[in-house]
Write a structure and sequence with these properties.
This protein is mainly alpha-helical and 382 residues long. It folds into three domains: 63 residues, Conserved hypothetical protein from pyrococcus furiosus pfu- 392566-001, ParB domain; 93 residues, DNA polymerase, domain 1 (Orthogonal Bundle); 150 residues, hpI Integrase, Chain A, CATH 1.10.443. 45% of the residues lie in helices and 8% in strands. It has a three-stranded mixed sheet with strand order 1-3-2, with no helix packed on it. Helix 13 crosses helix 15. It starts with 11 loop residues before the first strand and ends in a 17-residue tail after the last helix.
């Protein structure tokens, strides 16, 4: 028995053996105009298949409806569709998903964000990209990549006939700001910091973050990975730290422990070297039971410790000691600079030595030296 019902486009599947090719001729454009004005006057014919519907007749009307729906899609909307799909399929983690949404908001706040992609002109896009130069290069590159992916997706889905980025050879602009130089602590500042942290007293009802900072300096672990360490992650028999988690923020900025590290290569075993061992042992001795079984835990507020908490402590410490530092993450670069063996650097998941670690070392110290070896209790060959 035939009847007329309304079916969402997402539940309609094309007939698998449909023999004709849909063309954008004058007749199809007239159909677009008619549906845009009056809607679908003649229903399509379908048959139920499982919980979906298979199209028997009306492929042109279906395609016209899809295009009309797509015609209203803006670059931010397309970007959100792609990002949501990647997140739903576990291609990206929650922190990457959240950062992508923040990048998309940069486009949404501009005139470009409200213009359907079919109406975006090269002049409008170039004007938007020119205004982007007030951001850092890293942000500019992320925004440009989102826009480029949106045009690629729109062309693949036949929403647009021409990708204006490729057709007009539009390139990613450069920032007006200078790139931040990744720095490590000087040997003198590192000695000063170590002496101060070693002398720090632990006060009642106040968190101390000195152990996390020392572990970062002597292991090269990210602070989120350190705060995510559990008792079972420390293996003193094998003399290694097992890294397979990080402390991060969720979509609502709630703090939680992610069971996988920041990067795909982040799951690893880090050797406990001579100068690191006392701080690991001290952390184990100070461990107090908590619901998350974390080695480091904010017992006063009954919550996990965030990287921001440790960073604030580090910033105040550096100001007190007169140490110039871009942030606690520089301790990771300090470790990489001191412990300079290329194989070890790659194994620990550091940035490409040729791009970051080696230039930082020679920029900071000029020449290689055995003076750094005592910091780690190892013989370092340079």
């Amino acid at each position: 028995m035939q009847r007329i019902i309304e079916i969402p486009l997402v539940l309609l599947d094309d007939f698998p053996s449909f023999p004709f090719r849909l063309r954008r001729d004058s007749e199809f454009l007239n159909l677009l105009d008619s549906i845009s004005t009056y809607g679908v006057l003649q229903p399509v014919i379908v048959r139920p298949v499982a919980e979906r519907y298979q199209l028997i007749s009306g492929h042109r009307r279906k395609r016209a409806c899809e295009i009309l729906r797509y015609l209203r899609l803006t670059i931010p909307r397309i970007a959100r569709i792609r990002v949501d799909k990647n997140y739903e399929n576990n291609f990206i983690q929650v922190q990457t998903y959240r950062r992508n949404l923040e990048t998309i908001k940069i486009i949404e706040r501009t005139p470009l964000g409200s213009v359907p992609i079919v109406d975006v002109t090269a002049k409008l896009l170039e004007s938007f990209l020119t205004d982007l130069k007030k951001y850092a290069n890293n942000t500019i590159q992320k925004v440009f990549q989102i826009i480029r992916n949106a045009f690629t997706w729109a062309k693949e889905n036949k929403i647009i006939d021409i990708d204006i980025i490729t057709a007009n050879n539009i390139r990613c602009p450069r920032s007006n700001k200078r790139d931040k130089v990744i720095e490590s602590l000087t040997i003198e500042d590192q000695k000063k910091l170590i002496e101060y942290l070693d002398s720090c007293k632990t006060y009642e009802r106040r968190n101390s973050y000195k152990l996390q900072l020392m572990i970062e300096m002597y292991s090269g672990l990210r602070m989120g990975e350190i705060n995510a360490l559990r008792i079972q992650d420390i293996d003193l028999k094998k003399n290694v730290i097992c890294v397979h988690g990080t402390i991060t923020y969720g979509l609502d900025y709630e703090i939680y422990r992610n069971d996988s590290p920041k990067t795909a290569a982040g799951t690893r075993q880090v050797p406990i070297m001579k100068n690191l061992l006392p701080y690991i042992e001290e952390a184990l001795a100070q461990y107090k039971k908590n619901k998350s079984c974390l080695l480091f835990y904010d017992h006063f507020h009954q919550k996990m410790i965030s990287t921001a908490q440790v960073s604030l402590f580090y910033k105040r410490t550096c100001e007190k000691l007169g140490i110039h530092s871009a942030g606690q993450h520089c301790l990771r670069h300090t470790f990489a600079t001191r412990f300079h063996t290329k194989l070890y650097i790659n194994a620990q998941g550091f940035h490409s030595p040729g791009r970051y670690v080696f230039p930082v070392f020679f920029q900071k110290f000029g020449v290689a030296s055995h003076e750094t070896a005592p910091f780690f209790g190892v013989s370092v060959l340079f």
